[in-house]
């Protein structure tokens, strides 16, 4: 594991009181993944909860999930897109640690303890990486690898980070940091023209990375080996989703700058960072916020 992605001027020296044996909540966004879930869910280790967020699947995804893991919590997303599915799942988490886990068989359940270890060892955000030592992928194409490398460069330049795998969805973080992400509210209705809200699409991973980086949390990269999707087709469109990620990097940089400019103008007593952490000296002290179980 490396601190390679730690942002310049990281501000999370003060660690809140976190458990050494955290309750793990696995959030699984799924759109037509019935056959994959039948294989993947039984492979999961014993955890506090598994939350499936269905995107209106037509292939029996929910029934397959319940059959494979009878205790699974099932939610339906409120708008379109993987980002919205994750936001819905995160809002329902009752554990100490959130693990973002794809349903298509690409994420190896055996790696979950590695992510949790990184968090317990002091990371705020354990960022899976296929491109650091020990990582790998059975699925990456040359075009995607090049696109990812380019996008890493854009974000690293803008945020002073050293992410090696920006566009990878296997990550984990402490639940108390959720307010920091300020994700689009699941209760907001979808747009009338059917277009996705900002943050609802595949840009979600970049958005999360950028917001954590901007907040200065401690980011540790965790080597991860991406497996092949078992059944079905990817929902990702390399070019259009890649452009969306690029726009995200720009939009998040502007957002971070605006927040940085606004912060010193607030009176010290009321100063609160974008994330809900409070600060008296310009440093962010992440606040512990636990969703009641
Ligand atoms: N609920 C929900 N899940 C989604 C949606 N889009 C994608 N997913 C899920 O998000 C996960 C990742 O989606 P994939 O289509 O595999 O995309 P990817 O992993 O980025 O791309 P590949 O590397 O090609 O597999 C899978 O579990 C999908 O089922 C959506 O709109 N709603
Ligand atoms: Mg996939």
From TrEMBL:
Pfam families on file: Glycos_transf_2
Keyword field: Transferase
Similarity annotation: Belongs to the glycosyltransferase 2 family.
Bias (Basic and acidic residues) ranges: 10-21
UniProt superkingdom: Bacteria
Protein known as: Glycosyltransferase
Organism, scientific name: Nocardioides marmotae
Residue span(s) of domain Glycosyltransferase 2-like: 25-146
Keyword Transferase included in the entry's annotation: yes
A GO MF term: transferase activity
SUPFAM superfamilies documented for this protein: Nucleotide-diphospho-sugar transferases
Region (Disordered): 1-23, 267-293
Entry keyword annotation includes Transferase: yes
């Amino acid at each position: 594991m490396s601190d390679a992605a730690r942002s310049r001027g990281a501000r999370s020296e003060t660690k809140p009181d976190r458990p050494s044996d955290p309750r793990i909540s696995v959030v699984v966004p799924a759109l037509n993944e019935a056959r994959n879930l039948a294989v993947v869910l039984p492979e999961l280790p014993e955890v506090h909860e598994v939350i499936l967020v269905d995107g209106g699947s037509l292939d029996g995804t929910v029934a397959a999930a319940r059959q494979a893991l009878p205790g699974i919590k099932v939610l339906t997303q409120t708008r379109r897109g993987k980002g919205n599915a994750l936001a819905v799942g995160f809002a329902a988490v009752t554990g100490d640690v959130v693990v973002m886990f794809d349903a298509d068989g690409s994420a190896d359940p055996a790696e979950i303890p590695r992510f949790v270890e990184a968090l317990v060892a002091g990371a705020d955000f354990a960022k899976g990486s296929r491109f650091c030592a020990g990582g790998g992928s059975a699925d990456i194409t040359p075009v995607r690898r090049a696109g990812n490398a380019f996008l890493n460069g854009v974000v690293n330049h803008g945020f002073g980070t050293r992410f090696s795998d920006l566009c990878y969805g296997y990550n984990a973080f402490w639940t108390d940091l959720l307010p920091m992400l300020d994700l689009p509210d699941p209760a907001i209705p979808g747009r009338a023209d059917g277009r996705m809200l900002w943050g609802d699409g595949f840009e979600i991973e970049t958005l999360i990375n950028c917001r954590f980086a901007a907040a200065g949390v401690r980011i540790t990269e965790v080597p991860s080996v991406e497996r092949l999707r078992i059944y079905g087709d990817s929902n990702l469109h390399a070019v259009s989703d890649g452009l969306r990620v690029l726009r995200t990097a720009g939009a998040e940089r502007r957002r971070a700058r605006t927040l940085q400019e606004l912060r010193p103008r607030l009176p010290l007593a009321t100063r609160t960072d974008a994330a809900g952490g409070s600060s008296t000296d310009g440093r962010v002290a992440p606040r512990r916020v636990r969703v009641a179980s």
